[in-house]
Fold this sequence. Notes:
Layout: E1 3-8, E2 29-30, E3 34-35, H1 36-45, E4 51-55, H2 61-67, E5 81-85, H3 103-109, H4 111-114, E6 121-126, E7 129-131, H5 135-145, E8 149-158, H6 160-164, E9 167-171, E10 177-182, E11 189-201, H7 202-215, H8 220-225, E12 234-238, E13 243-245, H9 249-261, H10 263-270, E14 288-289, E15 294-296, E16 299-300, E17 305-306, E18 309-311, E19 314-315, E20 320-321, E21 326-328, E22 331-332, E23 337-338, E24 343-345, E25 347-349, E26 354-355, E27 360-362, E28 369-371
Parallel strand pairs: 1-4, 1-6, 4-5, 8-12, 14-17, 15-18, 16-19, 17-20, 18-21, 19-22, 20-23, 21-24, 22-25, 23-26, 24-27, 25-28
Antiparallel strand pairs: 2-3, 6-11, 7-13, 8-11, 9-10, 9-11
Amino acid sequence: MSATGIIFSNIHDANLPELTRKRTLASVPFGCRYRFIDFALSNMVNSNIFDINVIAHYNYQSLMDHIGSGKDWDLARRSGGVKILPPYITAYANNQNSLYTTRLEALKSVNYILDKITSDYVVLSDCDVVCNVDLQDLIKFHKESGAVLTMAVKNLDLDEKAAEASTIFYSDENARITDVLAFPKKFSGKADVALNISVINTQYLQQIVMDAIAHGYTSMTKDIILKNLETQKYCVYKFDGYFACIRSFADYFKYSMDLISDNFARKSLFNTKNRPIYTKVRNSVPTYFSPDSVVKNSMIADGCRIEGNVENSILFRGVKVSRNATIKNSIIMQDTYIGEGTYINCVISDKNAFVRDGRLLSGTEEQPYFISKGQTL
């Protein structure tokens, strides 16, 4: 029961433009020391999938720097390993070389790789999903069901705004998909929402991509699944662990704060037996806390220097918090400097920012104040 992994790194960049101006969504920092792609890579490695392809389009320098040879995920291998696929080697995707917006367009652009896959199954994963899922169990369910495609879903209670950004699947008592609602308007209530993780038979994947190239199809949901519900068996796999889908800047702030306030979220992601989340290892010094510092209910990475007050916040590696500075309800990314007497509340600071002494910066939970990468205030 062999499987190959394919990860889409750029598809949802537009959902988080503040943080993807100079990087892919896959390499956006999350949870004190991780990147979004760490969850997709770790899910695959923990499920014995060691042949992984990452489809990129642009702005993927930071992604390459983060993944490197793949050794931190045990993917530095002679056979298999992790490969970042350059964009549009073929001319199948689109003539304008614009950013693809669907998985099918992305798969069409790397058709030359799909033809070489010899595994029985292919696991497809987006990078806007934060979860810790047993993909071996998903593949086993897929095989036993006899389906050609199985979508991982979670039953959620949606309001209208969340529903408009979701793909909803209906299924029968045998888990066979009977209908699909893609980004429905004016829908609310409980529904099975796609995790943007799926497993598909390799031969079927190769077939539908060639068919999409021939007919100009662009959407896996509308052009493939909906058109073939009667003739092909598609199933859902119901996941009951913690799941976060980052659809906006406010979502990024909310789900980051969940790591502090939600014990279930933290345990599901980082304390699941035999399924650790791996990331790039850095040999940083321990964080220094001065005698006058006060730190409450926060996640703080190594290499920081804390001389002020930090409460209900997430600090990445190398952050410097000066004397009498106060940070509350905020996310401060790597190597940011916070000056003396500064007060920060509901702020997201990208890497290498510099906040001078005595500044007062405040946003709200729905609209956090943003400091861009390398900015000085």
